């Protein structure tokens, strides 16, 4: 479904990604884990065409994503839930959700999708008229995820969804991610919370200094000595 092939990218003269390659198959839940600064968010930006490649290719099915303008990525079935939520704080929850359904089939099926999303996130149903900027951190993250779902994506990119959340809210966000996956949406998540993400995913890739250094089943990687030493303090 998604293929990242030998990608090199960075910011100006600073190279961040070095020959990064990985894949996500249809209906998989794949995570990229690594320490802060490993290049995880940079990978998400390259997939969404927000950051140009120095070299390499990114494919979604038979389409080269790295040759598409960022505002067309959603037309091909990919929704990006960015780091730090990036909501419209002075718009209501409902208005933020509607912003996720401005194009194509998503716009035509907005009412139907909104009911589905609000069933998934009953807390947002209670707060539809509330300004998004007044929500708690966890509620804002739910709103950002729900906004992505409003585009009716084939695949969702989650960039550090647990950032700044309490352990209890982190568990809730991961539970919602599993539910969304069970609804048939392919997921790619980048996270610093290595233990919890490896426990719930199908497969995982470990990044260090902008390079993929390990790949495998999530639970197998939890038992890997290198992962235990580098990320779990064991």
How would you characterize the overall build of this protein?
Helices cover 38% and strands 27% of the residues. The protein has eleven helices and ten strands. The protein has helices spanning 40-47, 70-73, 93-98, 104-108, 110-120, 122-126, 137-149, 167-182, 194-200, 218-222, 225-232; strands spanning 2-11, 14-24, 29-34, 55-60, 63-64, 78-81, 155-159, 186-191, 203-208, 211-217. The strands form two sheets. A six-stranded mixed β-sheet has the order 6-7-8-3-9-10, sandwiched between helices. The protein starts with a strand and ends with a helix. 41% of the residues are buried.
Category by helix and strand content = alpha/beta
Total count of helical runs of at least 4 residues: 11
**Shape estimate:** globular
Helix share, percent: 25-40%
Largest beta sheet, briefly?
6 strands, mixed
Task: Please state roughly what percent of the residues sit in beta strands, choosing from under 5%, 5-15%, 15-25%, 25-35%, 35-45% or over 45%.
Answer: 25-35%
**Overall mean pLDDT:** 90
Quantity of strands, as a count: 10
| Uncertain parts | none
SSE map:
Blueprint: E1 2-11, E2 14-24, E3 29-34, H1 40-47, E4 55-60, E5 63-64, H2 70-73, E6 78-81, H3 93-98, H4 104-108, H5 110-120, H6 122-126, H7 137-149, E7 155-159, H8 167-182, E8 186-191, H9 194-200, E9 203-208, E10 211-217, H10 218-222, H11 225-232
Parallel strand pairs: 3-8, 3-9, 6-7, 7-8
Antiparallel strand pairs: 1-2, 1-4, 4-5, 9-10
């Amino acid at each position: 479904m998604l293929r990242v092939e030998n990608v090199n990218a960075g910011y100006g003269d600073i190279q961040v990604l070095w020959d990064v390659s990985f894949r996500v198959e249809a209906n998989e839940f794949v995570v990229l884990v690594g320490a802060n600064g490993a290049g995880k968010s940079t990978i998400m930006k390259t997939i969404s065409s927000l950051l140009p490649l120095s070299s390499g290719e990114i494919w979604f099915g038979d389409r080269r994503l790295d040759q598409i303008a960022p505002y067309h990525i959603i037309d091909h079935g990919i929704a990006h839930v960015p780091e730090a939520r990036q909501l419209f704080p002075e718009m209501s929850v409902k208005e933020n959700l509607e912003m996720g359904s401005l194009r194509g089939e998503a716009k035509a099926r907005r009412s139907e999708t909104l009911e589905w999303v609000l069933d998934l996130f009953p807390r947002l149903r209670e707060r539809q008229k509330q300004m998004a900027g007044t929500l708690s951190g966890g509620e804002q993250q739910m709103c950002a995820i729900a906004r992505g779902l409003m585009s009716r994506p084939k695949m969702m990119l989650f960039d550090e969804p647990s950032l700044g959340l309490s352990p209890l809210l982190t568990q809730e966000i991961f539970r919602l991610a599993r539910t969304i996956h069970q609804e048939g949406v392919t997921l790619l998540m980048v996270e610093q919370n290595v233990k919890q993400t490896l426990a719930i995913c199908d497969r995982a890739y470990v990044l260090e200094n902008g390079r993929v250094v390990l790949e495998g089943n999530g639970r197998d990687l939890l038992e890997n000595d290198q992962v235990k030493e580098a990320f779990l303090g064991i």
